[in-house]
Amino acid sequence: MTNALEVTDLRKSYGGVDALKGVSLTVPEGSFFGLLGPNGAGKTTFINVLVGLVRASGGSARVFGHDVEDDYREARDRIGVAPQEFNVDRFFPIHEVLEHKAGYHGVSHEEAAERADRALRAVGIHDKRETRFDWLSGGMKRRFMLARALVTEPDLLILDEPSAGVDVQLRRDLWDLVTELNERGTTVLLTTHYIEEAERLCDEVAILDQGRVITVASPDELMDRGADRVVVTLRDPPATVGDLPTDLTDDDRVEDVTLEGPRLVVTARQGGLVAPDLVRGLDRTGYGILDLEIKRTSLEEVFVSMTRDDGGVSDAGVNGADGGADRNESVDDADEPDLVADGGRGGEIDHGGESEYEKESGHGDDGGHGGHE
After folding, report:
1. What residues make up the domain containing 264?
2. Contact 264, 231 (CB under 8 A)
3. Hey, how many other C-beta atoms are within 10 angstroms of the C-beta on 1?
4. Sequence-separated (6 or more) residues with CB below 8 Å from residue 366
5. CATH number, domain at 282?
């Protein structure tokens, strides 16, 4: 089976600022893959490289076997992107915007109209098909961004903070829709600040910090690396921890033991495995147990501990290095006209007279309709 995404030693520098420092990862076809990282970690730069808005300084990225630079058209046609920012032409009804989007990818007018209808029905806003984007509510705008990503029927769906700023109900509706798409075979790459979102949805997550991949693992595997709290309420607690038999906590996984009134609190990795031995030891030594609770570490706690150093590259630092490149709003339609104009190599490649800002971000193009943002 071909991997959906194969990235090897991917690097990107803006002047003296290194936004990506040798990123390597593999996303299996059909998986739901999360990309987590604090602001300035390099997530947006990474996505922009995949869709052709940014040329990497080194390394390679392949989408279903197609190099994102050498095989730009083939790679880009396999990707659908729902960016965090709204970069939509506001002068057309939303169904026309979707039809134009599909047309950039070589879809006939008739088929594009059918796909637009299907995409709008899928996200629940088909009744607004004649409405302009600016007249939609905030939640409907977020749904439309997903519809635009789906209208090309992509094999790899990239979601950049898809539930940012939406209410709880809409967030769960989006989760259900994206989960259904994944179950039907679409590979999903999710970037999010909502750790609960990654914990619930993703098969695997990569933690990106300061332009480097720190680790790749499933949410459960990551949570196993954190310390759980086993809280045992005792009938007759000892006066101090030192009064407990030492063999009760003689386990390499135990990191700390404290007494909080009648509660014995044991901090340990893999607390669920430590708890049975602890209970047997307490019972053996005559301590009656009134209650037991295992408070498992959260993915958020693990994420924070792994990215605690806040000395990384900030978004402002990247933008300052090259006049504003790598902006979220540039992802997706900004590169579309060049699919036709130059055979699919992308707006930032081989346009010698353009400024570095224009070449890297594609700013000024918005789906071929005059750059309305």
Report:
1. 227-296
2. yes
3. 6
4. 87, 88, 89, 333, 334, 372, 373
5. 3.30.70.2470
124 and 161 in a single domain? The answer is yes
Placement of tokens 């949410």 in the chain? 219
38 in the same domain as 20: yes
Tens-place pLDDT, residues 153-182: 999 999 998 877 777 888 888 899 999 999
Can you give the length of the chain in residues? 373
Instruction: Report pLDDT digits (tens) over 206-230.
Output: 999 999 999 999 888 888 777 888 9
pLDDT in tens, 146-161: 999 999 999 999 999 8
Alpha helices (runs of H) in 232-369, residue ranges in sequence order: 271-284, 299-306, 315-322, 337-341, 356-361
Work out how many domains the chain is built from and give that number. Answer: 2
Q: Which of 146, 163, 61, 33 is nearest to 98 (CA)?
A: 146
pLDDT at 334 over 60: no
Going by their DSSP bridges, the two strands 227-234 and 289-295 should be labelled as antiparallel
Give the Å distances, CA to CA, from 129 to 86, 102, 147, 177, 278.
17, 15, 11, 19, 61
Q: What are phi and psi of 5, to 5 degrees?
A: -145, 130
pTM of the model: 0.72
Residue 93 DSSP symbol: B
- Class of residue 229 by CB neighbours under 10 A (exposed 0-12, middle 13-18, buried 19+): middle
Select from 296, 331, 349 the last residue of a domain.
Answer: 296
What was the pLDDT predicted at 326?
A: 39
Q: Which two tokens stand for residue 204?
A: 């695997």
